[in-house]
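Quick one: structure tokens for this chain, please?
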Amino acid sequence: MFNPKDPTFEPLTETEIAYAHTAWAYFATNTDPKTGLVPSVRNFKSMTMWDQGAYLLATVSAYQLGVISRDEASGRMLRAISSIMRLPLYKNALPNKAYNISTLDMTDYANRKTPDGIGWSALDIMRFMSGLLAVTDTFPELLPAAQNLLNNWDLPKLVEGGRFRGLAVRGTANGRYVQEGRIGYEQYAGRIGLKLGLPVKLASEYAPILRWQGYYGMNLPGDVRSLDSHGVDAVTTSEPFLLEALEFGWRDDAFAVASAVFDAQILRYNQTGQLTSLSEDHIKGPPYFSYNGVLVGNEPFISVTAKRVDVSDKRGLSTKGSFGWWALLRHPYTIELMKHLPPLQTKEGWYAGLFEADMSVNDILTLNTNAVVLEALHYKVFGPLVR
């Protein structure tokens, strides 16, 4: 029997090789000819550092899987790093939250040029750093370029009191540092930060923030930080647990929480008959993005926007969530999830998923969906991307 904490690895089947080529098609068809960067969403020339980190991880995965050559992978990553080196930095310190991939201008999230920027995200920057760690592990010849890039970034500004902080330029927090990261996301970023030598041990740990909420005989993992105490409800969802394990492997505390997240989705399926694979995902049409939660604040199984507006009518079965759980656990339930994904393949990548309401296709093509598919397939063959 497959043991997730002591996994065995095996080659891809012919079908799975085709899955990898489908995922890489997103990058092959959407790379900007001017800069070599890749948009977060097809036909929307916007990027975040989170997504460019995913691009680096996808490229390493595609090379390792034999989808692209070493020369193509190395050339793509060097070009991406060179373009990122040219990005104007927020307050000349750290990358802005969003950029135009063609002009490299700082923008807002609607891709409107914003010369002064909109602050920085510590979580996004850590995701980029995960990609850079994978690149320099596999392509040591790119280490000087990576070092030159980071010489311009003031990474210590991301940390305060053992936790990550971002800088907000909107609302009541305008111009102020804000503690950044909730359950799963903070600990994933913390694991990356520790590898970089940042003093973020507190951020990497689950024990200080973990709470459990009873639900039909099982416990759902939540964050002790609430709307009342920290101004926003925490979302417990699959994404950060999958990313940490695919990129760095399982650790005991993360595995315990992630297992509860996975088990909760099986429980919902058993209760309702609705196949459940919850993550954060882009949506075709309004509200354009949602967090599909096992727990949001104290509410089980709702979906919300970044502003925590309930959009559960748009809840979806996630392509990347399904691939991630399948690669990491090889559980019979994940095999059932995978049976529903082949229709989501296109010539330009994998669609984001299926809407639960009628199992219609969420026909949006995104960088992160296709990157996580490649990471998952890489894990099946080789294990974690960063050793």
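Residues 63 and 72 are 8 Å apart (CA to CA).
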